Amino acid sequence: MAIQQPTANQIKSANDCWDSALKNTAAGPAPKGTGIYQSWLTALVQGRFYGPPITWEYDSVDWSGNHIVVQEFARARCEWSGSPTWYTINGRL
After folding, report:
1. How far apart are CA 5 and CA 2, in angstroms?
2. What is the rounded CA–CA span in Å between residue 56 and residue 73?
3. What is the pLDDT of residues 8-61, one digit of tens each?
4. What is the pLDDT of residue 2?
């Protein structure tokens, strides 16, 4: 199955959501164009809503001590180590 490409209106709506939680903070909106952003956008277009980011990406480690990049969202958490792993309150997706 081919990945659906977002329309201009979907991208506008997605970017408005992406920027919403952090735009009026000192940090400003989280950067777009990252792997986590692309994964979030793809999920959104496919009907999975993780909410807007509430942090920028930050470096961390997984429970085995491996380096990961993490970003927290209003309804989920994404851990990136070459590909995204999403978690919600109910665990790994």
Report:
1. 9
2. 9
3. 999 999 999 999 999 999 999 999 999 999 999 999 999 999 999 999 999 999
4. 62
Domain that holds residue 25: 8-92
- Domain-located, residue 2: no
Inside any domain, residue 87? yes
**What is the CA 51 to chain-centroid distance, rounded?**
8
DSSP H helical ranges for the chain: 8-20, 35-45
* Number of domains into which the chain is organized: 1
Distance CA 84, CA 81 (A): 7
Mean pLDDT of 77-82: 97
- Residue 22 within any structural domain of the chain: yes
Beta bridge partners of 55: none
